[in-house]
Amino acid sequence: MKSDNIDTFIQECKSRGLNITYPRMAIYKILLQYKGHPSAEDIYKQVQKDHPNISLATVYKTLEMLVDNDLVAKVTPLHDIVRYDCNKDFHHHLVCIKCKKITDIENDALNHLPIPENIDKNFKIINYRVQFDGICKECQRA
Amino acid sequence: MKSDNIDTFIQECKSRGLNITYPRMAIYKILLQYKGHPSAEDIYKQVQKDHPNISLATVYKTLEMLVDNDLVAKVTPLHDIVRYDCNKDFHHHLVCIKCKKITDIENDALNHLPIPENIDKNFKIINYRVQFDGICKECQRA
DNA sequence: GTGGTTGCAAAAAGTTTGCAGGCTC
DNA sequence: GAGCCTGCAAACTTTTTGCAACCAC
């Protein structure tokens, strides 16, 4: 199964005209094996163990290339910088993936989602939020 | 209504033994008036227009104090640094607010949420995700 | 050989911190 | 007046960039 994924990855690279390189293979393998969601630094530390010559800049460049090619997802629901909100009511967000604009949604149905039952019983849920990603009116025109 | 909010804010500060200062008032007013969710930089730019002597460091310190006192919410669903995931399937997240660990949830009910009807019809929704915040088993013990 | 990729180092972007001076109560 | 708060500047963290050398095809 693991080699399946690597094979698929190689195919995906080839079909996009991307060279198959040592750093790429190493970084992608770590992503496959990693439990949880690593940061660039996490991946760098991990990759260093086997390949100390791979640089942090390469990790960043490779991750960016993987995201651009839709082979890896960036888990930063909103965006890269912290934003603030003085509306402390329970509410959800509509996020434009192009201009990054955030709009609040007040919706009662979303405020009463069933709590999933197949999660670790020992995880104490305090809160949740739903984020809709999409493209706003202005960015659709552009 | 706006002065209501300011009055409430002043009360909240007093009840917590926080001084009522010019920068605090100015920054909080901007948060009240701001459409969308500003970053620290956004707030700084805005506050500069009326009060060019207020520094960016003060904006950061004030925001941190507001968040610590639960007067303002930080809109950074996961955390402060970008994380990656090579599981591109539709899934949701369980996030420990203490140790920042992220766990995937696969849950069919969550994959079929009703799209809220009271949002801008011109916003094209591409995807959505649900994030549950809470405290994991390990952090509850600590 | 050609062009895509890498590594290094420097820089940019965002955020935090220490400390002297100033302001609120 | 006491102690909290602010401004400045410097430091720190995370990410990006430029460019020469290198490697895959």
Account of the 3D structure:
The structure is a homodimer of 142-residue chains. Chain A is of the alpha+beta class and 142 residues long. Chain A folds into 2 domains: 6-85, Orthogonal Bundle (Arc Repressor Mutant, subunit A), CATH 1.10.10.10; 92-141, Ferric-uptake regulator, C-terminal dimerisarion domain (Dna Ligase, domain 1, 2-Layer Sandwich). Chain A has helices at residues 2-15, 22-33, 40-50, 56-68, 137-141; strands at residues 73-75, 83-85, 92-96, 102-105, 124-135. The longest helix of chain A has 14 residues, at 2-15. Chains A and B meet through α2, α3, α4, β1 and β2 of A and α2, α3, α4, β1 and β2 of B. The structure holds a DNA duplex (25 and 25 nucleotides).
In short:
2 copies of one chain form a homodimer. Chain A has 5 helices and 5 strands; from the N terminus they run ααααβββββα.
Give the arrangement of secondary structure elements.
2 copies of one chain form a homodimer.
Chain A: H1 2-15, H2 22-33, H3 40-50, H4 56-68, E1 73-75, E2 83-85, E3 92-96, E4 102-105, E5 124-135, H5 137-141
Parallel strand pairs in A: 3-5
Antiparallel strand pairs in A: 3-4
Helix pairs in contact in A: 1-2, 2-3, 3-4
Chain A binds a DNA duplex (25 and 25 nucleotides) through residues 17-24, 39-41, 53-58, 60-62, 64-65, 80-82.
The first-to-last residue Cα distance of chain A is: 42 Å
Alpha plus pi helix count of chain A? 5
Largest sheet of chain A: 3 strands, mixed
CATH fold category name of the largest domain in chain A: Arc Repressor Mutant, subunit A
Helical percentage of chain A: 25-40%
Strand content of chain A: 15-25%
**How many separate domains make up the residues of chain A?**
2
- Uncertain residue ranges of chain A: none
Oligomer: homodimer
For CATH, the homologous superfamily of the largest domain in chain A is named as: Winged helix-like DNA-binding domain superfamily/Winged helix DNA-binding domain
Based on the structure given, which CATH architecture of the largest domain in chain A is correct? Orthogonal Bundle
What's the rounded overall pLDDT mean of chain A? 81
